[in-house]
Amino acid sequence: MGAGHDHGASAIRAGERHRGRLWAAVWVLAAFMVVEAVAAWVTGSLALLSDAGHMFTDVLGIAMALAAITAARRAGRDPQRTFGLYRLEVLAALANAVLLSGVAVYVLVEAVSRFGHPPQVLAGPMLAVAVGGLLANVVAFALLRPGAQESINVRGAYLEVLGDLLGSAGVIVAALVIATTGWWYADPIVAVVVGVLILPRTWRLARAAVRILVQAAPEHLEVPAVRARLAALPGVCDVHDLHVWTLTSGMEVASAHLTIEPTAELTAVLTAARHALHDEFAIEHATLQVEPATASGACGPENW
Fold first, then answer.
1. pTM above the 0.90 mark?
2. What's the alpha-carbon Rg for the chain, to the nearest Å?
3. What residue ranges define each of the domains in the chain, with the CATH number in brackets?
4. Using one digit for the tens of pLDDT, what is the confidence trace for 181-201?
C-alpha cells in the first residue's frame, strides 16, 4: 500500500506570480542592451561591449525563464506528463549559466589581447551610456529580487543582473579614469574585472542545476536525518529504499518504504509520516510504501 501527497508546483506558481515583473525587466534590459552595443561600437570601449554582452544574456535568461514557466504550465494539463515539464526551468538555468560563462571567457580573452595595444576610447559617451546602463540594471534588479528566492531560473536571471549592475559601475569608473587621466588601460582592466565577477556566480548556478538534474539530495537536507525521523514514528519498524531529490526549484520529492508493526494503524502512520516530512523537512510530495513486519511480528533492532 502506498500514499502520495499532491500539491501545486510552487516554483511554477512563483514564476506565475512574478510574470509581469519578468516581462518588465526584459523590456528595460533589451532596450538598453541595444543602446550599449551601439555605444560600444562608436566609442571603441571593450568594457562597454562586455556590459552589453552581459545584458544580452540577462535578456535571454529572463526570456528562457518566461518560456519555461509557460511550457511547464501548459504541460501540466497533459495526462501523459504526470510531473509536467518542471525540469525545463532547470535546463534553462543551466543553459543560461553556460552561455554567460562563454561571454565571460570571450571578454577575458579580448581584454588580454588589448593590453598590448589599448585603443583610444571616447570617454564622454562611454560614461553617459554606462550611467544609463547602471540605472537600467537597478530597475531590473528591483523587479527580479522578489522572485529570486522562489525559483532557480529567476534567481539565475537575478544573479546575472546583479553582476551586470556591478559591471556597469565598473564601466563608469573606467570612463572617469580615462576622461581625467587619459589612462586607456582602464578599459581592458575593467573588462577583465567584469569577466572575473561573472564566472563564480555562473558556476554556482550551474552546480545547483546539475544537482537537480542528477537527482542528488538537496544540499540543505540530511538524508540520514530524514530516515531517522521516519524510523522514530510510532508503529514504524524499519525504513528502507529512501530517496530524496529535487524535481525543480522549490519542489522537494521523497519516496520510501516503511515497515510497520502488525498492530500499527496504517492511516495514522501515513499521516504522521507526511506531516513529519512536510513540517520538518519541507518535503511536500512524498510517496510512501507501507509493508507489514516479518511473519513473527518482531519489531526489534534486527529490523532497523
1. no
2. 25
3. 7-213 (1.20.1510.10), 223-303 (3.30.70.1350)
4. 988 888 888 888 877 777 887
